[in-house]
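Lecture notes, continued. The same structure-token format from the folding unit now serves as the input rather than the output. Read the line below as a description of shape only.
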């Protein structure tokens, strides 16, 4: 059996967590006027529902505690799995980490419940006896049950948390000094039961607002003089 990989990332399988129904977080207000409405739309999109299929991806076990994006150089390596051979791929899923669920959830812990894991090994072709046409573009799939046992917490959605930021006098005071021509990027992520919004400006600096993800209280609004590059 011949199978291909990227060289540096020789992962034998793709493991995907599938939700039985779409996961949804409330979006909040849709009537913010002018530039403030533009800022909300580029930060948290225009709706809060992410597709139910897929919900999340397992990653290489060694990547679980890494910060920021990870990628692989595509070198198009072909390997051979001989008869009776085996491939071992250790994958893990950080269920409450920053990449636990789809981008619309920004790292919110997945709710408790029953899910499925789709494990797929795709291969290029299998060797065949003479005069027998090879079978190409095949895959082997295993469907596994998965139960998430965790507290059920009613978190604010990213859009609702962003509304709290926009209602904050401290944020508005900073934002009024930052016209759209100074915006570089605006991001929102979930961290330690709080939503953190970062509006990156040209200097570079960033306006950083933190909101309690349960109560909706704005914890802080500050200027970060050295925020680094945005992580999407």
């Amino acid at each position: 059996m011949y199978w291909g990989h990227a060289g540096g990332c020789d992962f034998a399988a793709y493991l995907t967590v599938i939700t039985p129904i779409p996961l949804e977080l409330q979006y909040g207000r849709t009537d913010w006027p002018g530039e403030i409405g533009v800022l909300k739309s580029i930060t948290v999109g225009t709706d809060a529902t992410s597709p139910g299929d897929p919900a999340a991806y397992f990653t290489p076990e060694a990547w679980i505690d890494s910060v920021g994006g990870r990628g692989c150089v595509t070198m198009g390596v072909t390997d051979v799995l001989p008869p009776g051979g085996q491939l071992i791929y250790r994958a893990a899923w950080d269920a409450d980490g920053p990449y636990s669920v789809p981008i619309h959830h920004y790292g919110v812990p997945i709710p408790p419940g029953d899910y499925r894991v789709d494990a797929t090994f795709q291969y290029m072709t299998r060797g065949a006896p003479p005069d027998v046409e090879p079978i190409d573009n095949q895959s082997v799939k295993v469907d596994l049950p998965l139960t998430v046992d965790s507290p059920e917490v009613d978190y604010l959605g990213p859009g609702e948390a962003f509304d709290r930021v926009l209602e904050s006098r401290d944020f508005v005071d900073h934002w009024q000094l930052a016209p759209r021509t100074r915006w570089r990027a605006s991001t929102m992520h979930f961290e330690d039961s709080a939503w953190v919004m970062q509006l990156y400006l040209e200097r570079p600096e960033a306006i950083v607002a933190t909101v309690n993800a349960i109560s909706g209280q704005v914890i802080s609004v500050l200027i970060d003089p050295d925020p680094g590059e945005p992580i999407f």
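Point for the exam: The two ends are 37 Å apart (CA to CA).
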